[in-house]
Amino acid sequence: MVQVYLRVSETHEHYVVAMCDKSLLGKTLKQGDIFFKVSEEFYGGDLVDLSTCMQHLEKATIANMVGKRTVEAAMNAGLVHEQAVLYIEGHPHAQWVKL
Fold first, then answer.
1. Which of 3, 7, 38, 84 makes a 20 to 30 Å CA pair with 46?
2. Residue 84: half-sphere exposure toward Cβ, Cα within 13 Å
3. What angle do the packed helices 50-59 and 68-76 form, to 10 degrees?
4. Closest CA relative to residue 18, chosen from 27, 26, 9
5. Which residues touch 56 (CB under 8 Å, ≥6 apart)?
6. Could you tell me the residue range of the domain that residue 71 belongs to?
7. CATH code for position 58
8. CA dihedral angle for residue 51, residue 44, residue 36, residue 21, rounded to 10 degrees
């Protein structure tokens, strides 16, 4: 079973989902002028399976994900379009906001 990190934060107006591949937590990805920190403070929630992540992602109003497993799962679920994916040091990153 594939496990990834998931952090959910709820406010009055938003359901924020942050998820990342297990292997990326705590790393800083670098490409050109981009320095992208996959911080424990933002991404390091619970270690869960991908189906649990997708349940939360479907409810999200704000989503942020990084890593091959998480982004591919979101794409396969129809929640991320392939043209919306940015690659940093070869790792896919996607984010969106529902207004």
1. 84
2. 16
3. 60
4. 9
5. 6, 8, 15, 17
6. 3-97
7. 3.30.1860.10
8. -30
Whether 63 contacts 21, CB under 8 Å? no
Taking only the tens of pLDDT, the chain with its 99 residues reads 789 999 999 999 999 999 999 999 999 999 999 999 999 999 999 999 999 999 999 999 999 999 999 999 999 999 999 999 999 999 999 999 998
Tokens read off for 15: 């359901």
> What is d(CA 92, CA 90) in angstroms, rounded to the nearest whole number?
7
Taking the C-alpha atoms of residue 52 and residue 74, their distance in angstroms, rounded to an integer, is 12
Q: How many domains in the chain? A: 1
How open is the CA angle 58-64-46, to the nearest 5 degrees? Answer: 80
Please name the residue that has the structure tokens 């940015």: 86
